[in-house]
Amino acid sequence: MAKIIAALDQGTTSTRCILFNQSGEIISSCQKEHRQIYPQPGWVEHDPMEIWENSIYVINQALYNAKLDHTELAGLGITNQRETTVIWSKVTGQPVYNAIVWQDTRTDQICTDIAGKKGQDRFRSKVGLPLATYFSGPKIVWILDNVKGAREKALNGELLFGTIDSWLVWNLTGAEENGRHVTDVTNASRTMLMDLKSLEWDKDILKIFNIPEAILPEIRSSSELYGKAKGSLSGLSIAGILGDQHAALFGQTCFDPGQAKNTYGTGCFLLLNTGEEPTLSEHGLLTTLGYKIGDAKPIYALEGSVAITGALVQWLRDNLELIQESAEVEELANQVEDNGGIYFVPAFSGLYAPYWQSNARGVIAGLTRFITKAHIARAVLEATAFQTKELLAAMEKDTGIMLASLKVDGGMVKNELLMQFQADILNVPVIRPTITETTALGAAYAAGLAVGVWNDQDDLRDYWQEDRVWIPAMEETEREKQYKGWKKAVKRSFDWVD
To answer: What is the mean pLDDT of residues 305-332?
Structure first.
């Protein structure tokens, strides 16, 4: 049988397809960016049709590059930007509105209204999440209430909701001609609408949000056969779905409680495997599904989410034009020995964990005439490391687990200056694997387990290999001084929006 698995990695800024062989090695890939739509400050949208068209393009191009036909694939796994919300007509297949992206803050008033006197943590014991603009539930409410005719059509059974995984599976499996309307537990756990214990949509919360259950997809495991593709990929088994950060946890083979990974992408996401029981955070972290493989028990995780990390480098490139390419930020930052006393808090869309301050906004603190663009570049990179330290500190308080090391992945781990500073500020070794595309790898693993390319998770552990380790080299007094400065700067970002 075929031993090649395709992973469709649909991210915030681009869509990729990577083909993996049975040893977990990359044999081909293709990537295509999509537009970022900003209708007004705080609003972020994507065109779902553009994402769908790009997805088919990158799959076909990856196959072409490898000189393969889709019939030679054992299966397809999907991993996706989470929380990004699409509502579409099951009659025409057309979205009723652009996809509202996870970074979007337009639902702030909806969250405030639903919180009421019961507060931001009104549903945390059931869903593991605070009421925040980040999650899908409030975005659904916004579309139903603000797109003309949407609520009426939803009540008439004409509309479907999905995160990006659901949108892609529905289109792949036939769209309006009996497309499968499913999601997996990891994506469902990011809506604020799924009970963490029962893994079902919570009827009480749906009533409070005023969301008709009929528009929601069926919740399935992260590794099973969801359906066969129609059209140009006819017959291809779609067999794995994981939200991107959960896919990275799985791809990093963090299968044991206490193992953690950090993904450095558009945002930064630190996940800690907490085992078969959910751990509710008292320090601003999210309780989420780690993954669920077939009929096995679900595995839970604690997550710390940072909205802006790699996106800050893009901002430096596109908005300030201090660099021409994102990779140039390391060379520029290396022109100075330290940050010159400045801190950059990138609260462009508020602060996520551990603060959950939606009215915070970005600040650069400590500016003097001594500061150059090189200092700004260095502060941009250090912001990612400082935010990660805050997440790790919160996890240690919640679980009592002191991490001995941190596995890292994502686009920014090629930046050696950042990785060394991360090790320094955390005071633990930082470990980069041989294959850093662990998000796509995790989706491939989930699909491959479902179709028999791999027998079990022990098989997958054998493929994980260490590429580079960064050892802490900073004095404790300097570490404390730097972190104290960061904490002062963060407080300056609070309560900016009235």
So the answer is: 89
Give dist(CA 276, CA 274) in Å, integer: 7
DSSP class of residue 454 equals S
Between CA 151 and CA 450 the distance in angstroms is: 37
Spatial neighbors of 19 by CB under 8 A, at least 6 apart, are 4, 5, 6, 7, 26, 27, 28, 29, 62, 63, 66, 68, 73
Token pair 């699909």 in the structure block, residue: 447
Q: Is the pLDDT of residue 497 over 90?
A: no
Instruction: Supply the pLDDT for residue 2.
Output: 64
Chain length of the chain: 498
pTM of the shown model: 0.86
What three-state secondary structure class fits 148?
coil
Cα separation, 20 vs 33, whole angstroms: 21
Q: Is 91 exposed, middle or buried (0-12, 13-18, 19+ CB in 10 A)?
A: exposed
Question: Which helix H or strand E contains 438, and what residues bound it?
Answer: helix 438-451
Read off the pLDDT band of 362 (50, 70, 90).
Answer: very high
DSSP 299-357: EEEEEEEES-SHHHHHHHHHTS-S-SSTTHHHHHHTTSSS-TT-EEE--BTBB-TTT-B
Which one-letter amino acid corresponds to residue 196? Answer: L
Please give the helix or strand (H or E) that residue 270 lies within, else none. strand 268-275
Alpha-carbon distances of 379 from 89, 272, 331, 391, 419, rounded to whole Å: 45, 27, 13, 18, 14
Task: For residue 10, give the 3-state DSSP assignment.
Answer: strand
| Per-residue pLDDT tens over the stretch 275-306 | 999 998 888 899 999 999 999 999 999 998 88
